[in-house]
Write a structure and sequence with these properties.
This protein is mainly β. It is 7% helix and 35% strand. It has a domain of 72 residues.
Length: 505
């Protein structure tokens, strides 16, 4: 057998073009890099809270039929409104956001606040590292649009809201024709996991809002470290109900009944699903006319393990009476719960432990009850997470949400954005999942295995992973927002420039 006797040459097949191709982003925005380390401020906290941006939102602010994009700012730079032109370019405009650049924009939404038919802008203030509890820079902002894309901050539109928050979700809760706002509270700066207050802002029809959460939904006021929420009519009574998710929180359903929001979670889920939830999207994935839930979570590719019998646990209190909160994370190992905190980390936070555990051997097998006395554990608050998967819950004929399995690639990294698209135009919704955490605790390590996970839907609630070489996505970094506009996907990536991928067919 000799090569020169071969009669046919082997032809290397040409690679098919990918579905999406990276292009130069017409939205030119770069989030500045920083050296923030949340764990220096609070060594025992679990997840960093200072890397939630940039937020992005789209809307036609000047009535020209073209959707414009607002990219949120942070402490180093203001938010920017990018006005779309007929030629596809976007012109940046920082009015009037320059004056508020000391605040961190963690979420934003366009809506008509005062009933004049123009898209106004609500911006949520959050953050952790730079801020003190209850400081003025944590106040949310409402900017009123004159219809030409010129915005003016409305100074008296909102009540005092000086807390670190996560999201704003819009709906006409009380059916009076004016749009109201649920604003989710996150964690108190420097006091993780203490909960900030959430708000239910009722609109007077003229763009002035009053917080009525204490009267309408007192249980919702400090329900947890909220990360996202969605309004929808769950029970078909034409009233807007609310689903709320968060870190160390169960999926929570609040039903709109007689002008109140009542917790009816047990009526809609088969069990409790407590997780480290990040993002919630509500849409009909299987074409049955009922709204389904896709919810981003930590995923299964980490040291953190949790189940119904062996949940991840958090005990927190000021154990050493020095004025700071001491959060102790625990995981089960061979049927027994142990603190995840190392001896060195424990001693850095609480010097009183030096005499109790003079060496590593004495600490190695210690449980929480070995570390703290019964008296010290009194008054400690408790959180748990029994479910860490990014999830798809399908709405059934029985009115409940039923868990369905997503491809395993959905669990490779924490999911912070969920974008329903129909990339192949077959009439069935597909999903693009993005996220990652590069600023994690050193012992956890980076979670950066998501480069843009594309899942093809079959219209029946089933999904197939599209390999990266087929999808074309190579999105590196911590993606915190995605905008779908003009067959182009814009990616807001923490401490990077906005990137863009265009659908190729």
């Amino acid at each position: 057998l000799k090569e020169e006797n071969a009669t046919i040459k082997y032809l290397i097949p040409k690679a098919k073009p990918s579905l999406f191709t990276e292009i130069a982003s017409p939205v030119i925005s770069v989030q500045n890099k920083n050296n923030i380390n949340d764990f220096k401020r609070q060594p025992l906290m679990v997840n960093p809270l200072s890397f939630s941006g940039p937020c992005m939102v789209k809307g036609d602010v000047n009535g020209d039929g073209l959707e414009d994009i607002f990219v949120g700012g942070d402490r180093t730079q203001p938010g920017t409104l990018f006005m779309q032109q007929r030629n596809g370019k976007f012109i940046p405009n920082q009015q009037p956001f320059e004056k508020d650049k000391q605040s961190e924009d963690v979420d934003a939404v366009f809506f008509d606040a005062n009933g004049d038919g123009f898209q106004d802008l609500y911006v949520v203030s959050g953050g952790y590292h730079y801020y003190a509890p209850s400081e003025i820079l944590l106040q949310d902002r409402l900017y009123i649009n004159n219809g030409k894309g010129n915005f003016v901050k409305s100074p008296n539109a909102l009540p005092e809201m000086r807390g670190s928050k996560s999201c704003a979700r819009i709906a006409d809760f009380n059916g009076d024709g004016s749009l109201d706002i649920f604003v989710g509270g996150r964690a108190v700066p420097a006091r993780y996991p203490e909960v900030e207050k959430s708000y239910l802002l009722i609109n007077d029809g003229k763009g002035h809002f009053k917080d009525q959460i204490q009267d309408i939904a007192p249980q919702l006021q400090k329900i947890g470290m909220v990360t996202d929420a969605a309004w929808l009519d769950i029970n078909g009574d034409s009233k807007q109900d609310l689903i709320v998710i968060g870190e160390w929180m169960p999926l929570t359903v609040m039903i709109n009944s007689n002008g109140k929001l009542i917790n009816k979670t047990k009526s809609y889920f088969e069990k409790e699903y407590s997780g480290w939830w990040n993002r919630l999207v509500v849409t009909d994935m299987n074409g049955d006319g009922r709204l389904d839930l896709i919810i981003g979570n930590l995923g299964l590719n980490s040291q953190c393990k949790a189940s119904d019998k062996e949940p991840a646990e958090m005990f927190y209190k000021d154990f050493d009476d020095n004025g700071s909160v001491d959060p102790i994370l625990c995981f089960y190992i061979q049927g027994k719960s142990y603190p995840y905190v190392t001896r060195d980390e424990m001693l850095d936070q609480m010097s009183m432990m030096r005499t109790r555990f003079p060496d590593y051997k004495s600490y190695a097998d210690a449980t929480l009850k070995d570390i703290f006395t019964e008296e010290e554990l009194k008054g400690a608050q408790y959180l748990k997470a029994n479910y860490l998967k990014t999830a798809y819950f399908e709405s059934g004929k029985d009115g409940k949400f039923h868990e369905k399995t997503l491809p395993r690639q959905a669990q490779f990294s924490p999911v912070f954005t969920i974008t329903p698209i129909d990339y192949d135009r077959d009439g069935h919704k597909d999903l693009l999942l993005c996220g990652n955490i590069n600023q994690a605790r050193l012992r956890f390590g980076k979670s950066d295995a998501n480069y843009g996970t594309l899942l093809k839907g079959d219209g029946k609630g089933n999904f197939t992973y599209i390999p990266q070489y087929v999808s074309g996505f190579r999105v590196k970094g911590d993606v915190r927002s995605v905008i779908d506009l003009n067959n182009t996907l814009f990616f807001g990536i923490n401490q990077q420039k906005v990137k863009a991928y265009k659908l190729g067919n």
